[in-house]
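Reopening this one. Same input as before:
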Amino acid sequence: MTPADLQAFHKETETIVRQILRIQTAPETRDLFALEQFRQSRREAFEKGDVKFDWYAFLPTYRMIDRAMDELFLRRIDRLRHDAGDVAELYQFFLAPFKGPTHKYGYAPRWDMIARLSPFSHDMAENVFAEYRKQLKLDVDEPIDVTVFRGMHFLAATEAYQERARSELLSGFDLALEGYDGERLVNDMVFVQLGNSLIELGDPSAAGVLYRAFIFAGDDERNYEMNVAASHLAQSITAFAYDGPLDAIRQYVDNYSENYTDDEFVLRARYALWYLTGDRNGPLAYLQEGEHKRNLSFVVSALVDLNVKEALPVIEERLKTLENSVTIECFKEAIDRLQSQATAPAEADRMIWMLGRKTRTELALGEDTDNVFVLRAQKGSDTYYAGVEADDSSPED
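Same output, byte for byte:
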């Protein structure tokens, strides 16, 4: 397909999806299957026009239908307010969405939707809690199901289950390490997801919980993947007003800077240390040192989030030398922010969150990127697609 053909194809999908959402205000379960059949028909139509099927070129259509599907899921659940007799049917559906003649096994479970059945059946909440406990004990090579954690977020926001869900999320690291013998490997993705979950929870006590988990994950006796996960925990700590010890993060940065100077996980931890200590000079000095050319997004994010306006000319000068389209988008954002913001941004508006929180492992397993700068770069290119994180696709920037 030519770029013009692609635009027309996705525009047609958008038009049909809007019509479906306008018509299906209170869908039956069979209507969900109809939308899935539409997804299949769009893929077939795409393949006819594109001999070598390009998944990333098809992705915008897939995403539009996926978002519409989630909306219809919620509308179908909402119908339970008028007829709660369908809870068991929907539970079975969400355990293996679209299982049937065309999908022998169905798609992966949607525990976030099962959690939304809890107002109509206590058993649904119990099922989510039980699955959450299973996730915490997954072996190191088993993929996690993020919908379980999203289901826990929903329960933590409901009056009936708030106290229990919040308690289980706050004690998640302890539950994951229960019975730990010092020998077996612990699933690093569970640690990362727990860190993200505690940000969503917003409980002030989570900062100390995260720091203790960081001490475990960042220990050089752990495997490399868990050490990388520690950097995500350090970044998660920055979401809170934390004023506790930071020695473990300092030691971590010093330790891994020797062999992984500009690697993403080291820069993520540096960002956390700069931000938590209010160090305005550290990221500026780092950017001024010309030998640092990778993962600079974390550096300029620190400068913006600490409102280091004196860094503006340095960022502008470095921008002239950049070739990586993602890094360029990041530097442009930093310049715009430093020119316009009067003070450091509020917690939710910090630039660091624009880099996304998904890990390389999640992206490699097919998750869509949540890095705003990758998405911006995609819009300006026919060939740049999700899966490459900011600053790391080129050794030069």
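So the earlier flakiness isn't reproducible anymore. For the record, Residues 82 and 286 are 60 Å apart (CA to CA).
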